Amino acid sequence: xxxxxxxxxxxxxxxxxxxxxxxxxxxxxxxxxxxxxxxxxxxxxxxxxxxxxxxxxxxxxxxxxxxxxxxxxxxxxxxxxxxxxxxxxxxxxxxxxxxxxxxxxxxxxxxxxxxxxxxxxxxxxxxxxxxxxxxxxxxxxxxxxxxxxxxxxxxxxxxxxxxxxxxxxxxxxxxxxxxxxxxxxxxxxxxxxxxxxxxxxxxxxxxxxxxxxxxxxxxxxxxxxxxxxxxxxxxxxxxxxxxxxxxxxxxxxxxxxxxxxxxxxxxxxxxxxxxxxxxxxxxxxxxxxxxxxxxxxxxxxxxxxxxxxxxxxxxxxxxxxxxxxxxxxxxxxxxxxxxxxxxxxxxxxxxxxxxxxxxxxxxxxxxxxxxxxxxxxxxxxxxxxxxxxxxxxxxxxxxxxxxxxxxxxxxxxxxxxxxxxxxxxxxxxxxxxxxxxxxxxxxxxxxxxxxxxxxxxxxxxxxxxxxxxxxxxxxxxxxxxxxxxxxxxxxxxxxxxxxxxxxxxxxxxxxxxxxxxxxxxxxxxxxxxxxxxxxxxxxxxxxxxxxxxxxxxxxxxxxxxxxxxxxxxxxxxxxxxxxxxxxxxxxxxxxxxxxxxxxxxxxxxxxxxxxxxxxxxxxxxxxxxxxxxxxxxxxxxxxxxxxxxxxxxxxxxxxxxxxxxxxxxxxxxxxxxxxxxxxxxxxxxxxxxxxxxxxxxxxxxxxxxxxxxxxxxxxxxxxxxxxxxxxxxxxxxxxxxxxxxxxxxxxxxxxxxxxxxxxxxxxxxxxxxxxxxxxxxx
Length: 778
Hints:
Blueprint: H1 21-27, E1 35-41, E2 48-50, H2 57-60, E3 67-69, H3 70-80, E4 85-88, H4 95-109, E5 114-118, H5 122-138, E6 145-147, H6 154-163, E7 166-169, H7 171-177, H8 185-189, E8 191-196, H9 204-223, E9 229-234, H10 240-248, E10 253-255, E11 265-270, H11 282-295, E12 300-303, H12 307-319, E13 329-332, H13 338-350, E14 355-358, E15 373-377, H14 383-390, E16 401-406, H15 411-418, H16 438-451, H17 464-476, E17 480-482, E18 489-491, E19 511-518, E20 521-524, E21 528-529, H18 530-536, E22 542-545, E23 548-556, E24 561-566, E25 572-593, E26 596-616, E27 621-627, E28 634-646, H19 647-653, H20 661-675, E29 688-693, E30 703-710, H21 718-724, H22 726-739, H23 766-777
Parallel strand pairs: 4-9, 4-10, 5-7, 5-8, 6-7, 8-9, 11-16, 12-14, 12-15, 13-14, 15-16, 19-24
Antiparallel strand pairs: 1-11, 2-3, 17-18, 19-20, 19-21, 22-23, 23-24, 25-26, 26-27, 26-28, 28-30, 29-30
Helix pairs in contact: 3-4, 4-5, 9-16, 11-12, 15-22, 16-17, 20-22, 20-23, 22-23
């Protein structure tokens, strides 16, 4: 599929007939040749069919329009054939209409039919309720829709359960509602359609939990004699069929030929100055671009890579002298309260805010009005997100638009600047779910046993081997027991609400809830797993919230408590990670060349977060070696893959220099491979760890090793998917190593250096790393 969904700056700015570098040279305040490339995409007209060709006449004549996009019609045809369907097309391509019309069809056929619509955020849930309700109203259909989540008044919940045709909720909520299925009997007995919107977002840990919650839902619905059809909507990913079938545990027909119209687009690739005192961060540069564009009267979004960076960019916009004080800016991320987020959404819709700096929280299709412009501050980790973010503005097929990508020093960003066609390739990243994670499976199956007693027939809903292993271990732990008379397995654990132990964003048992303390006021932030707590909330760590900087003043691993207080320090922090690996179990291997074996399997990883750095962006200085106060490691039994490289090969590559020299090449190759993971998988490289060594007690003697692992307890499938795509990963890594502009033997942050390296990025050898990977690749 050719990507042609970038739609930005659809405005009366006459230079946008076709954007050029001259636009910025003329009046951009700090222009120093930052425009590195401009890619131009031509628009396309849409492909339509008459609505009555696929819809019953009584519905077709009620539609506000007489045509559908061809891909919408194809999806509806598949649904008529009793298929589960995944529609994986671009932003603003009408995916919602597919399942809204299917629900209307089902209710026309059976007035008792019900539907469950699942969205990733509460804001999107309410937005979609309004959009779908408006459609049904325009069609003259009496279909009631209720939003049922933690924000719903308790007095309304019973009425929604007992009378709504469609219930909208999210997976975290569904996890809590399933044990009370007896209250949902009317709804479940008539359940005919389940919608999973933005299904590409359910990957990694969240994806595993979601897959099990769907299986729990199907099992309970089956007990009420219902077998609902599934519709999933997704941005474009590399493996939509595999991903969605793993998610719902059933066959899926994929609709991916996008036939919606799109406008022409100019994509500007922007490199901040990188020399001496002019070395500028992507955050600073993106903030200035936001100020520049909003000064033209254009309401704009700036997508930043993290919660902390949204607040940092907000501070830059507020502090920059040449940005007018009359412009209003705000930030938006999941760390804000519900009230704060909804105020920003309303301000965007009514135009009372000029620019908003957001994380991916505004990437999905919440109605935020007509946005004029968007800036992407660093590559968001996958092409899916890149195109989703671009698609949040403009959306007019008859106007040329502009997208702005601001790179930082990271490997992937620099790779994209040198290889802009990467964003336009058909070879899109895969979304990864591995439902063999035993820690997550046990939590979910324990919750399932509490909802309905388990029996052998439940193997139809859960993966056979992991189900049986989970049952065995839960019985040993005294959490479940089997009745000798009925052979049914029931939950007998101490926690009467085992579903409360499930967090969709963590696989570990421990979770922390950071709190901000200001005088007598306490603000709770969203809970985090132990891995993120150790990495980002250690003692002394800095954290931004609503443009204010806070410092962690208390970290207690035993009580799982974290306290933050306001601070005015001029630095931000970055933790360092050191690693030990043991108990390797190989499950597969191959030899790409004599003397090199690549293996995958499992192992026990010990991660130490005992130090951190203070980074002073204004001074361009970094202080290493500050103590976090965390002496004990996180121990992870997880998935990994590794290279075993004979010493003789390293001898040839290093041209008979000292053996210790090879460690720099191995270390640099390890870092570089991890940095390039987001070009192959939909994965954050922060969730990937590594180790390089000249010797390891569990691999053959006289062999060096490079290990890459999932930094999540139990593993989520990232490293094993890398093993399957190793040739592609190595090719892109070699490209980055050989073409980095630093030309340094050691390398730089753009190719070999990692801010999380526990060894202080020593030793590193960029040239030898490329030689090692080239040797293996050839």
